[in-house]
Amino acid sequence: MKDIRQLLLASFRAALASADPLEIVPPHLPPPPAGRTLVVGAGKAAASMAAAVEASWPPAAPLEGLVITRYGHGLPAHRIRVVEAGHPVPDEAGEEAAREILARARALGEDDLLLVLVSGGGSSLLSLPVDGVPMADLKAVTRDLLASGAPIQDMNTIRKHLSTIQGGRLALATRARVLALVISDVTGDDPTHIASGPCSPDPTTYADSLDILQRFGVAPPASIAAHLARGAAGAIPETPKAGDQGFNRVDVRVIATAHASLMSAAAFVQSRGITPMVLGDSVTGEAREVAKVHAAIARQLRQHAHPFRPPVAVISGGETTVTLRGTGKGGRCSEFLLSLAVELGGLGNTWALAADTDGIDGAEANAGAIVTPDVLARAAARGLDAKRLLANNDGYGFFSALGDLVVTGPTRTNVNDFRIVLVL
């Protein structure tokens, strides 16, 4: 049993290794410009991306900067300052740092380089609300959206229309050449959705933002409702769109993706004699419903050896959602796993791991958890009712009580969730 746990954990480490900023950033760095180089950025990988730049940049070439990462995700830096701020709900520390980033970008000249390091989590961390929208109101609508089950793309549509720096505005605020290096944590890897696209054209509109709020039953604070209504009426400019000439001097490169991480994990399990069955990096929806599909596939493999004969590893990525119905502490990975355990019903020789590649599942300190074939029996012996805890969104409480949490600490990268169901 211990060996299988280690195999699952090793597959997760293989996925993480392909998105390690210290390895993937240096090959994309340009020669130093004639003028200055300003490094800015935001995201859970911002500190490690900045460290990679510092380690590879010529010592004699000018280099300065400021990046924002989540509390507890910082690293020591020498030439690039690292600021920690709030995630998933923005705070004043992020607002102050974002204001400084925008001001410093505006001060650059045509001979300078603005090097922007973008990764998941940047939408919250790089929060600089428009005039008339206080941070308290941005916090409130963010909390409501998080609880509503809205996909991250929809959340970021609203964020871009409440921001003075996201939705392409950072890139267009400077006269310098812009190079954005992006670690993708979203389905489809479109840079406009990653950290709310500070350097990318925004195809969405104020009207889209209002529609999303209505669709998910979120009543925003008055300041936000008024701002979005003015935008939809054409009283204030839209976010920058494709075709804006300012983007001609902007180069946006996606340098790490969930797909690449899944394929690294697939290669790892294949090297151990296990057939990988990769469902893709765009598996989304309610976590508990996605789990039902994975359980059905596992049962097909276990009972009918179709479409592959076990051992098989069913691997998937993509960001699921959790609509809060209870008061539990579980994140989307633990919710997926608890639903999976219920659906499998103790199916023999079937294991699973799900974890967020940033090392944080929801609001707790675990990356995810592991499901064993005997998990329901062990839970029953401890008086744990799996279905009741699932109804309370308390996957964390369930797996914590059993000692089945996966705790990595901050990984300082982020390519979305990693899931593996192992059928032996």
Summed up, what is this model?
By secondary structure, the protein is α/β, with parallel strands linked by helices. The chain has 16 helices and 14 strands.
Topology:
Blueprint: H1 2-17, H2 21-24, E1 37-42, H3 46-56, E2 64-70, E3 80-85, H4 92-106, E4 113-119, H5 122-125, H6 135-148, H7 152-160, H8 169-172, E5 177-183, H9 206-215, H10 222-232, E6 250-256, H11 258-271, E7 275-280, E8 285-286, H12 287-304, E9 312-317, E10 320-321, H13 332-344, E11 350-356, E12 368-371, H14 375-381, H15 386-391, H16 395-402, E13 405-406, E14 417-423
Parallel strand pairs: 1-2, 1-4, 2-3, 4-5, 5-6, 7-9, 8-10
Antiparallel strand pairs: 9-14, 11-12, 11-14, 12-13
Write out key terms for the chains shown:
single chain; 424 residues; glycerate kinase, domain 1; Rossmann fold; six-stranded parallel beta sheet; six-stranded mixed beta sheet; 16 helices; 14 strands
